[in-house]
């Protein structure tokens, strides 16, 4: 019993399949056909391929009847689903609720076991294993996630303030320079969790400690959008005096230019002496909306600083930690680029009022 004579085109396609096919079933069937074309008998193919004679005969018969289509195994799809599509959607809907909404006390979230028991008790399904429930939820786009928080702004002038900040980001004034300022800290001495490359199953270990004997330091920094460079000071406190001193440093760095300083509503930023000095030295203080610190472009720089300079460290002295921060800032400033396109595709660009639900 052998495969019928092949056309030249069929021979080329079968040869290509035996070299490139990634589906093991299709590859095995193509090899059986190729060996049969080369004159190998069914017992020889059975011995070489380690398959049964019935399998080889079925492949040859199928190829002789249907040609190349016989190489693609048509899966039947298994038995029909016991749980209907509508019931699966209902299960996913219940999974997105919390037990308290169903009068269940003592539980703040579902486990697979408690959810399955609840579904059976309510008659949604007759029986349901945890593994089957997990597959239903995954297919329905429901996953186990950590809750997050969102501080909604109560600022009645939110849109106006946001638009002012975005306007400065998008179209920096030609008569000055836009600077983003914020505090970073407190900088205490403690083992900080982080990530690093290590040999498999050999994580780096940091000491455990509950003491903060050397106290804390405070960092204030400024991001120059025109160059992308970061400037900072580390002090023991972060009062209005330290903030005013930092403003004077920024003023002396760019003499003759008007400074547009974007910052949050921290009380030292609004101190009367800070406002008075800024007004007399060609500095405009641009305040963010209440609870809108995420509009400050420097926040992303702080995230990078924490990740690269502090995470995974265990500094024992502030001088050591400050040196690490200084080293990162110098490395970063050497590669700085002007800051453009803040949240260019974000929905906040289309806001005309503060949304009721932004999380």
From TrEMBL:
InterPro entries xrefs: Homeodomain-like_sf, RNaseH-like_sf, RNaseH_sf, Tc1-like_DDE_dom, Transpos_IS630-like
MF (Gene Ontology): nucleic acid binding
Domain of life: Bacteria
A UniProt-annotated Pfam family: DDE_3
Residues annotated as domain Tc1-like transposase DDE: 177-313
UniProt name for this protein: IS630 family transposase
The species this protein was found in: [Actinomadura] parvosata subsp. kistnae
């Amino acid at each position: 019993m052998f495969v019928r004579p092949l056309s030249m085109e069929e021979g080329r396609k079968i040869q290509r399949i035996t070299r490139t096919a990634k589906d093991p079933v299709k590859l095995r069937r193509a090899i059986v056909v190729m060996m049969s074309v080369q004159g190998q008998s069914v017992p020889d193919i059975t011995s070489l391929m380690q398959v049964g004679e019935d399998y080889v005969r079925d492949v040859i018969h199928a190829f002789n009847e249907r040609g190349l289509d016989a190489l693609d195994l048509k899966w039947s799809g298994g038995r029909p689903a016991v749980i209907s599509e509508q019931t699966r959607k209902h299960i996913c809907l219940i999974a997105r609720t919390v037990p308290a909404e169903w009068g269940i006390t003592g539980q703040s979230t579902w486990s697979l076991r408690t959810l399955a028991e609840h579904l059976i008790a309510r008659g949604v399904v007759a029986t349901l294993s945890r593994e089957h429930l997990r597959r239903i939820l995954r297919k329905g786009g429901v996953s186990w996630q950590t809750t997050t928080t969102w501080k909604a702004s109560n600022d009645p002038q939110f849109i106006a303030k946001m638009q002012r900040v975005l306007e400065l980001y998008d179209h920096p004034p030609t008569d000055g320079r836009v600077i983003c300022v914020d505090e970073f800290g407190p900088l205490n001495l403690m083992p900080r969790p982080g990530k690093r490359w290590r040999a498999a199953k050999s994580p780096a270990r940091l000491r455990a400690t509950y003491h903060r004997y050397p106290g804390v330091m405070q960092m204030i920094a400024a991001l120059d959008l025109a160059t992308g460079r970061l400037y900072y000071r580390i002090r023991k406190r972060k009062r209005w005096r330290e903030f005013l001193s930092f403003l004077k440093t920024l003023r002396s760095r760019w003499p003759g230019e008007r400074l547009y300083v974007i910052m949050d509503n921290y009380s030292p930023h609004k101190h009367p002496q800070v406002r008075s000095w800024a007004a007399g030295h060609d500095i405009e203080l641009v305040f963010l909306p209440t609870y809108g610190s995420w509009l400050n472009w420097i926040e992303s720089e702080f995230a990078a600083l924490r990740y690269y300079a502090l995470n995974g460290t265990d500094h024992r002295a502030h001088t050591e930690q400050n040196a690490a921060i200084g080293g990162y800032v110098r490395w970063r400033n050497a590669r700085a680029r002007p800051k453009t396109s803040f949240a260019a595709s974000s929905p906040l660009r289309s806001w005309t009022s503060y949304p009721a639900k932004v999380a």
